[in-house]
Structure formats: C-alpha cells, structure tokens
Amino acid sequence: MLTIDEIKDVKFRTNRGGSFYKAEDVDSFIDDVIETFEQKNNEKAELVHKMDILATRIEQYRSDEETVRNALLSAQKVADSTLKEANEQSEIAVKNAEKKADELIAQAQAEVKKEKDSLVALQKLANEMRTELLMKVKSCIDIVDALPTDNVVAEIQEKLSKEFPTPAVSEEVVEPKVEPVKVAEPPVEVEKEEPAEEVKEEKKTDPALEGTTKFGVLKFGSNYDVEE
Asked: What's the gap between Cα 89 and its chain centre?
C-alpha cells in the first residue's frame, strides 16, 4: 500500500531519449494506486459500518440513559420520600423519647425528693430520740451523782458513831435455834353427807389446825419463843 509521500515522490524511468516514461513503471504505479484506493475504500466502508454500529449503540445508550435517568429520578424521588418519612419518624421517635425521658426524670426526682424527705424525717426523729436519751442519761447521771460515795458513807458512819455510840457486843454470837419445817398434811376430804357449816365450825374450833400452813405450824406473837 502506497503512502502520500510515496505518491508525491514517485519517479519513473525514461527511455533512451528521455522523453517518455517506461510503461511498465507507470502500470506498476497505477496498480499500486488502485490497490491502495481499494484498500482505503474497504477501510472506509468498514469504518462507516463501525460508525453505523456505534451510532446504533449510541442511540441505544441514549435510550438506556434516558431509562436510567428516569429510573434514577424515580429512585431519587423514592429516596427523598423515604428519607423525609424516616426524618419525620425519627423526629417523632426523638420527641417521644424526650417526653419519656422527661417523665422518667420527673419520676426519679419525685422519688429522690420522697427519699430525702424520709431521710430528713428519720434524722429529725433520731435527733429527738438522741435528745430524749441524753436527757434521760443526764437524769440518771444526776441521780448517780446524788448518791453518796464511799467517803460520804464513811463520814456519816463516823458521825453517827460519835453522836450515837453503841456498846461493844461480845464476839460470841448465839445462833438462834431453827425449828424444823413441818410439811403440811393434805386436807381431809369431807364426806358429802355432812353439812358444810358444821365442817367450818369444826375447823374453827380445832386448835390443832391453828397456824398450820404449807410450811407447817407457824407461831406468832406471844406463842413464839426463840429459846424453844
């Protein structure tokens, strides 16, 4: 295949006279030019065919692009609508959460206030009990302080010994004679045929039962003698 430069710079041989070109050179050049133009035409036809294919594809791409654009616009609208709805729902959810949080905070604050009031009441009651207990303790301390000490008791004993002297007692101590304790006999059952009044009279007139208890016969007054 010839190039433009080869066509421009082509040179033919001449015959002996130099006035004519050799026919075989001219014919060979023409054949090369024809071949070159045929190839160019084929390439042009192929390029045109490719351009047709590309144009068809471009039209298809444009159609697809329009479809894609419409789909994108629809998707964008759906996305905007979904986003708007999601924002509205999120705002509602946030407001509800804030309202719930405020209610919980208010409830917690009320509980804290209630507990604080209870604690203050307990502290007040404890303070009152402390004051009362301190007063009682102070009263007990005052009573204890008012009691005589060993020194005071010794002074009183010494004073009483001086004012009211007592005679010396013999060291021999006579131990009192202890009477043995008699176990009381069980009461005698009274027959039903006997009247109750007569039984009472017998009890009154029976000297053996006088002074008898569950500890035995007890003696009081003039009947009691230590030396017995």
From this structure: 31
